[in-house]
Amino acid sequence: MFEKTTRMNFLIDIYESLLTEKQKSYVSLYYLEDLSLGEIAEEFEVSRQAVYDNIKRTEAVLENYETKLGVLQKYQEREQLIEQIEQHLTQHKQLDDGVAALLQQLKNMD
Amino acid sequence: MFEKTTRMNFLIDIYESLLTEKQKSYVSLYYLEDLSLGEIAEEFEVSRQAVYDNIKRTEAVLENYETKLGVLQKYQEREQLIEQIEQHLTQHKQLDDGVAALLQQLKNMD
Asked: Could you name the domain of life of the organism this protein comes from (chains A, B) (predicted)?
């Protein structure tokens, strides 16, 4: 469950601008704000089942964008490479403050 | 015109999986294959104006995705940072083959 939540947090963060307002609000409250299905249902005065169905559909929409664009996949591959660069430079005592700062900027960009 | 073509090449490359088949075919033939509007019109047996209108609309669709997701923008910013890292390491004589290869992998990833 933790992994699913983390993945959804990433996917929402990346693709939320492509979601409708309703899709964005339900899925954000559930995954980012950690509200329960019941709490969201109460707030929007709809059934718990309606919230659940909407969130499942939005998850599929987000996964579909990721299948097509792969922004998260590439982000994770880049993170690994940056990690390898840091390790390599550290091992060879070449990681000075200047490069460390630039690599940090590169990480923060995503 | 060159800059526009380059930009469209990037945007098509990034977002083509979000286009319809028709959008993708016209815009790809025009920008990637360098066919003229007249040649595309002839191939699809439609008017030159229809091809032109479709391509203009697809350009707007691509720019809209870029406004929302900014994949090209982030790519360009990362390229600059990687360039700076290479320059910094070169200046400090810290750019060995290992790091150079990793940085190249990072560039090729996008």
From this structure: Bacteria
ipTM for this prediction: 0.84
How far apart are the CA of B21 and the nearest CA of chain A, in angstroms? 14
Q: What CA–CA distance (Å, rounded) separates A40 from A47? A: 9
Counting one residue from chain A and one from chain B, the pairs whose CB atoms sit within 8 A come to 68
User: Structural domain boundaries of chain B?
Assistant: 2-69, 73-109
Judged by CB atoms closer than 8 Å, whether chains meet at A15 and B69 is answered as yes
Which of A32, A53, A68, A88 is CA-nearest to residue B69? A68
CATH code of the region A2-69: 1.10.10.10
Contact (Cβ atoms closer than 8 angstroms) between residue B44 and residue B23: no
Tokens linked to B5: 């073509």
What are the pLDDT digits (tens) for A1-40? 569 999 999 999 999 999 999 899 999 999 999 999 999 9
**Are the CB atoms for A85 and B68 separated by under 8 Å?**
no
Chain A interface residues facing chain B, Cβ-Cβ under 8 Å?
14-15, 17-18, 68-69, 71, 74, 77-78, 81-82, 84-85, 88-89, 92, 94, 96, 98-99, 102-103, 105-106, 109-110
Q: What pLDDT digit, counting tens, does each position of B50-89 carry? A: 999 999 999 999 999 999 999 999 999 999 999 999 999 9
CB burial of residue B31 (10 Å; 0-12, 13-18, 19+): buried
